[in-house]
Design brief:
The chain contains ten helices and four strands; from the N terminus they run ββαββααααααααα. It is an alpha+beta fold and 190 residues long.
Length: 190
């Protein structure tokens, strides 16, 4: 399940699943600084409409908040096996690629699924590290781009030097610093 963290200025005010964060914010003291809610998976800010009753707020929450933020418009379901989550899309390949795919046991679809599965398994750690780095950067950019050493910290983050990254942001407000470090190290915990 995706988690989210809300900040009022430089202070973390809520963290957890989106319904929990939304309701904490709804019942927080009025007049607190503007609140920004970040997806912990992507580091991107999200907008919530906190007007109305708890039930109305929860009804308006995105079904998959993290996934909805990264996907474009939903495509109409067509061919495939919709009950299994299979989605038909167009793939453009050269004729020799199609010939090879069609010659594989199970045909092109099975071969493509196996290739994707093997590639995801082989690059899993790298992909998780990249996603963690990107989430930390998006979060930092959204809340702390004016903080000291931002540029240097960003360079260290993208260089994969997490020790230098943590040292460069050591003087940042504690909640921002701790959350940025947690996001950058997230791939190690998964």
């Amino acid at each position: 399940m995706d988690t989210f963290t809300a900040f009022a200025g430089q202070t973390r005010v809520a963290a957890g699943p989106l319904p929990k964060v939304a309701l904490v914010l709804k019942h927080a003291a009025p007049g607190i600084e503007p609140i920004v809610i970040f997806s912990d998976r992507t580091g991107q800010p999200i907008d919530l409409d906190l007007r109305g009753s708890d039930r109305e707020i929860l009804a308006r929450l995105p079904v998959e908040a993290g996934a909805a933020a990264n996907q474009g418009p939903t495509e109409p379901r067509g061919r495939g096996r919709p009950k299994l989550g299979v989605v038909a899309r167009e793939v453009t390949l050269l004729p020799q690629h199609w010939d090879w795919l069609n010659a594989q046991p199970g045909g092109a679809s099975v071969a493509l699924r196996k290739l994707v599965h093997d590639a995801r398994r082989a690059s899993g750690d790298t992909d998780r590290a990249r996603e963690a780095r990107d989430a930390a950067y998006h979060f930092m950019s959204g809340i702390g781009s004016n903080l000291p050493q931002f540029e240097e910290a960003s360079r260290a983050l993208f260089a994969g030097d997490l020790g230098r990254f943590a040292a460069l942001i050591a003087d940042w407000p504690a909640d921002i610093r701790d959350h940025a470090v947690a996001l950058a190290h997230r791939h190690r915990a998964e």
